[in-house]
């Protein structure tokens, strides 16, 4: 380990950035060579007379710039200045701000970066234009999807989601939202009880309200649905299905342990309840075995490419028990007739030539980088969720109330989603917000949004306005 101590005199700005700048200069000048092991956070803090938290933020800033990297159990090492990544596609989905000012930073939505996918799309469309496949892609596809597209889907699920099924077991949908609608339509009718986590995906809430299902929330803890609460709800309510997101739960970003998944499957089988497993984030956690792999006979598994590859392709996959397949296919026919063949062809080509895997790997790197960024800016004790998730769950300290905090961040130019949007029924919503880390077009924009959120947390006077 080097005895490196940065020279900070003559530099201006926040102390953690000053340290990161000094590190960058010493690497550029050759004072620190690639592979050099840096001092521990505590050791460097002692030498500089600063807090450990300041050094932690400085190292996080340097890692964001590609200067250093950490290895669990070994330490932090100089990596050198890497070539800059290609700039992400600049998109601003926010409405213009009132008075002609800059649009707010929208951190309400969870979507992947698009930059790498753009070139892959250009290539795929060029190849399609020169192929003899175009005519076959302009007609109606079978309700379950074209056979080559389902075969590509089977390969994708095995590679990225650890679901091993035959192509005949897969049905194509237009994204995960449509897949959830199809699954619910296949097992329930208006007025039937559907269970969900007490905090659940907004899309599931919208579907239940639109289709007339009676959605009931089940208590959750730091590991997901509480088995005893699920058992009690099954006995009392006689539900048709349980909709759940066990991997990277939306909104809390919790990953349910394997033992808990097995326990939920046992309870569902005991009461004849169908599990609708939403695994759109499963690609981010390679060791999280889906419930479908544990209990395929009672699980309708749904996922899509929306969070991993491209939201705009609108490609979803459903895997269903054999006895439910006719009902699921009938629901697809009623709700959409069939998934559009052209985007399914693009997705299948990406899966076959490896483009989809490259996009996913880029997305994983970006998600991890933005999580590190968030945890370097926001107070660690308030941030919840898996460190690879595309979103974080921010639990607000006293005296903040969620509605006041949402208003305060909006006043500062950042839009986040309050916990009430995810709360099922009339249950009391926690004082927390979900922050989508990958909606901003660049890391710099994400950092500006996160700093505004951090500044909001430190403005307790605003939290009391609602009671004045």
TrEMBL record:
Tree of life domain: Bacteria
Q: Please provide the record's keywords in A-Z order.
A: Aminotransferase, DNA-binding, Pyridoxal phosphate, Transcription, Transcription regulation, Transferase
**Protein name, per record:** PLP-dependent aminotransferase family protein
What protein family does this chain belong to? In the C-terminal section; belongs to the class-I pyridoxal-phosphate-dependent aminotransferase family.
Which species expresses this protein natively? Azospirillum doebereinerae
Q: Which SMART domains match?
A: HTH_GNTR (SM00345)
For the HTH gntR-type domain, which residue ranges apply?
A: 13-81
Gene3D superfamilies registered for this protein in UniProt:
Aspartate Aminotransferase, domain 1, Type I PLP-dependent aspartate aminotransferase-like (Major domain), Winged helix-like DNA-binding domain superfamily/Winged helix DNA-binding domain
Q: Name one GO molecular function term.
A: pyridoxal phosphate binding
């Amino acid at each position: 380990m080097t005895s490196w101590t940065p020279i900070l005199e003559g530099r201006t700005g926040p102390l953690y950035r000053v340290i990161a700048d000094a590190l960058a200069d010493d690497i550029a000048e050759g004072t620190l060579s690639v592979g050099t092991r840096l001092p521990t956070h505590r050791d460097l803090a002692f030498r500089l007379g600063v807090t450990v938290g300041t050094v932690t933020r400085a190292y996080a800033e340097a890692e964001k710039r590609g200067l250093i990297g950490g290895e669990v159990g070994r330490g932090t090492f100089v990596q050198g200045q890497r070539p800059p990544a290609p700039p992400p596609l600049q998109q601003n989905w926010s409405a213009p701000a009132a008075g002609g000012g800059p649009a707010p930073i929208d951190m309400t939505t969870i979507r992947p970066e698009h930059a790498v996918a753009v070139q892959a799309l250009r290539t795929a469309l060029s190849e399609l234009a020169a192929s003899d496949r175009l005519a076959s892609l302009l007609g109606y596809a079978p309700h379950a999807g074209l056979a080559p597209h389902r075969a590509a889907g089977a390969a994708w699920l095995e590679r990225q989601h650890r679901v091993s099924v035959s192509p005949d077991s897969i049905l194509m949908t237009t994204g995960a939202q449509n897949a959830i609608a199809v699954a619910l339509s296949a097992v329930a009718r208006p007025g039937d009880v559907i269970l969900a986590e007490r905090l659940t995906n907004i899309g599931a809430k919208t579907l239940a309200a639109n289709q007339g299902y009676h959605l009931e929330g089940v208590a959750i803890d730091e590991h997901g649905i509480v088995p005893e609460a699920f058992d009690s709800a099954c006995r009392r309510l006689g539900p048709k299905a349980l909709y759940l997101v066990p991997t990277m739960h939306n909104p809390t970003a919790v990953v349910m342990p394997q033992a808990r998944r097995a326990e939920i499957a046992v309870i569902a089988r005991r009461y004849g309840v169908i599990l609708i497993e939403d695994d759109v984030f499963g690609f981010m956690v390679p060791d999280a075995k889906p419930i479908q792999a544990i209990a395929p006979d009672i699980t309708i598994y749904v996922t899509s490419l929306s969070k991993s590859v491209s939201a705009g392709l609108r490609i979803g996959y459903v895997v269903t028990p054999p006895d439910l397949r006719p009902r699921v296919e009938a629901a697809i026919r009623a709700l959409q007739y069939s998934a559009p063949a052209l985007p399914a062809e693009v997705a299948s080509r990406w899966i076959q030539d490896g483009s989809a895997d490259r996009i996913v790997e880029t997305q994983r790197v970006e998600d991890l980088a933005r999580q590190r960024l968030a945890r370097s800016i926001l107070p660690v004790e308030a941030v919840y969720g898996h460190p690879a998730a595309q979103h974080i769950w921010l639990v607000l300290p006293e005296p903040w109330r969620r509605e006041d905090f949402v208003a305060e961040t909006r006043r500062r130019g950042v839009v986040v989603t309050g916990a009430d949007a995810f709360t099922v029924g009339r249950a009391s919503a926690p004082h927390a917000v979900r922050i989508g880390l990958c909606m901003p077009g660049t890391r710099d924009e994400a950092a500006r949004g996160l700093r505004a959120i951090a500044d909001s947390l430190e403005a307790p006077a605003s939290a009391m306005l609602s009671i004045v």
